[in-house]
Every structure is written in C-alpha cells, then in structure tokens.
Amino acid sequence: MMRFALEQCRQKGCYKLVLSSNAKRARAHAFYESLGFERHGYSFRIDLDQVPG
Amino acid sequence: MNPTTYNFAYLDEQTKRMIRRAILKAIAIPGYQVPFASREMPMPYGWGTGGVQVTASILGPDDILKVIDQGSDDTTNAVSIRKFFAKTAGVRTTTRTGEATVIQTRHRIPEAPLHQGQVLVYQVPIPEPLRYLEPRETETRRMHALAEYGLMHVKLYEDIARHGHIATTYAYPVKVDGRYVTDPSPTPKFDNPKMNECAALQLFGAGREKRIYAIPPYTQVASLDFEDHPFEPYRHDAACALCGATASFLDEVITNDRGTRMFLCSDTDYCEAQRGARRAGGRLARTCERRRAVTDAAPVQIRKATAADIPGVLALYAQPELDDGDVLPVDQAVALFERFGRYPDYTLYVVEQDYDIVGTFALLVMDNLGHLGAPSGIVEDVVVAPARQGNGIGRP
Questions:
Q1: pLDDT, greater one: B150 or B319
Q2: Which of A46, B153, B271, B344 has a 20 to 30 Å separation from B110 between CA atoms?
Q3: Taking a contact as any Cβ pair under 8 Å apart, which residues of chain B between 211 and 230 contact chain A?
Q4: How much is the pTM?
Q5: Cβ-count burial of B329 within 10 angstroms (0-12 exposed, 13-18 middle, 19+ buried)?
Q6: How many residue pairs bridge chain A and chain B with CB atoms within 8 Å of each other?
C-alpha cells in the first residue's frame, strides 16, 4: 500500500510524500519508519471545534 | 389431500377455464384489459387476489413457482402465497429466478433476465392507467378504443412544467405493441425497460377491479415520453451494502434514529447470487494461488476505489483508533467520494485480498509553486483491517 503510494508519487514527480500520525500511535510510527519515512519537523495543529473564533 | 374433494390449485375447473379464456383474449390483444368474473379468494383484496387467480389457472403439476413481494422472497405476502400453492397444488417452489417456470410478483420484475417459457404474473391494484385522469369507466374505454391518449401526455407534460422533468417514478405508463397504453402495475420505472421484448409471457391480474391483461413474449413495450424529454431509467447513486451491486434496484433502509441509512438490493435472489459469485470467485482465486504454491496468503491487489467500495471502506474506518469508531453514513460518504473526482489528483485506493477490502488509503498529489513546481504527495486515512494487521498488507 505505502510502496504503491511512493511509486505513484515518484511517477508524478513529487519531491516528497508526507503523512501525519498521532503521537500516541507507536506501532504506526514503527511501521512508517521501517518503510523509510523519517520524523521530520513538528506538525502543529489547532482543534477548531474547541477554540472560540 | 383427497383429489376428489379438493380442486388442484384451489379454483374449480370452470373458473379456471373462464380465466384462461380471458388470458387467451388478453394475449391476442396485447395491453387490452379483459374483464373477468373475479372470484372470492381466501385472502383480502389488495393481497394479490388477481395474481393468485391467474397463477391458479395456469399452474400445472410440473411447474416450479416463485413468489416475490417488492422483489423479496421472504416477506409475508410472498411466503403466504407460496405456501398456499405448495398446499393446494403440491407444486415445487423456489426462490431462484432462473429455475422458476411461473413467477408471481408484486411491484417488481426480477433483475436476472427472464427466459423463454417463463411466465411472470403481476398482482395489479388498479389496471386502468387513465383512472386518475378520468374516473368514468365508460370514458376510459372510449379513450382506449379510439387510442386517444392525449390526456396522458398532458399529464406527463404537466410534470415537466412543474418539476422540469417527468417526475413519475413508478407505474410509469407504457404503450404495448404500439397500440394500448397500459399500467405496468406499480413497478418502479427502473423496471420498464425489462418489459420490452421480454422473452417471458407477462400476465397481469387485478382481482378487485376484475381485469386481466397481458404482454406476449417479444412484444414492443415503449415507455411514454417526448422527443425533447426522453424516458430516463431511474438510477440510484449508491451500491448495495451487502453485495456491492450498482446495477440493481435498491431499497433505502433507515438503520437508526439519526437517519443513518443503507441501500440494499430489492431483489433478494439477485443479491444472494451476487454474493455467491463473489465468494466463488474468491475460492477460485485461492485454489489457483495454492496450485502455484508461491505463498499461503492470497495475493493482495491495490486498485482505485469505486462508489461500490464505500461500504467496505467505511467498515475499515469503523475501528476505535480512528474517530472513536464513528463513520459517515454511506450516502454522505459516497457524495464526498464523488467530490474526490473533481480534484485534479486525489484518489481513494483500496487493497483487496480474497475479494475482501482489507486496506485503504487516500493519496492527494498537491501542486506547489515552490520547489520548482515539484508537487507534494499527501497520504491520509491509512487503514488496514485489524485482523490482517502485521501481515504486510500496508507495505507493498
């Protein structure tokens, strides 16, 4: 699945493939790292349904 | 059962002869409503007394009977009538469309094409297509005699004037053999095209209204329309949640108080056959795989998702790690999925193994002005079925 996604992106000339994963999901992180994904920077988020406009 | 005290298929022979004469006349004049002396039956009007009398008159000991109600073999009306004939005629009954010689139906035509030698018996509540436009029987008869159907066209035209299209979705009037305007009983207009050049004999019985009409095999049946507003067969923008069929007539089923709904094939036999074919296909693939002795696991295949896959994809999303196990209703999900198609490059993929959807992800290729215009790939909603996690489905 993920190799297929990588191949698709390569063919389309993408310079990177990104995804975000919850900090708690250690198994998912191990899986992505085993495929060559690296932890890169921080992903910032703000939950819009909890912050007053 | 003692044959001397009980009539085969309930009706007495004289009544059957009278009904058969009406049927023969109806076949000779396709689409014409033939009056007949409808009998009291051991069921109330509206439960298919017309259809039952026609079936009783044509049934022979070698026939195999199927009865459907709104496409289903399992509803009260269908089960009662099937049992009635199993008891009074001792005929074999079946739920398989292809196997039956006589099919009595309420409000549907089976999805599987009918073949020569089969008879489809419709239960008809109101046989007169002009009745709601002209209440007097003498007048409607005169209109039929003169083939004066302007009133029906005005009715369809008024639909267009009011709604912009012909809004009649069931009991959509047809012209049989270029002559009589006929009511296809309240079947959905989805079924109208199946009546045209149908290989089976179609008989219509209206018990309360005392009318029988017929469409012989291979007769032209045209749905009324206009040159600039041609007949459009009804289509659902959904797939059956059980078998994935997109080409069948679907029932909408509300599944909870929040209005969550799902779509299911109305033809239960067709739905079962589709599911059987998928299972058989899965078995075949597995057998081939074993013969090649490459690996124990069936191969996984990654392909673009279609609307038919949405129920399967939602089932994968329904694991607690993702959105606490909550998922969108199927129709909303399908509507959003169709929006994917309007993005330049946004695709939902599914991974199939053994004809089951075992994994899914969405891939967006986003254009950039930076990085010399090289796009970015973004993966979202990566899910593998819990039972198959750790089997390497996510890797290929």
A1: B150
A2: B153
A3: none
A4: 0.64
A5: middle
A6: 65
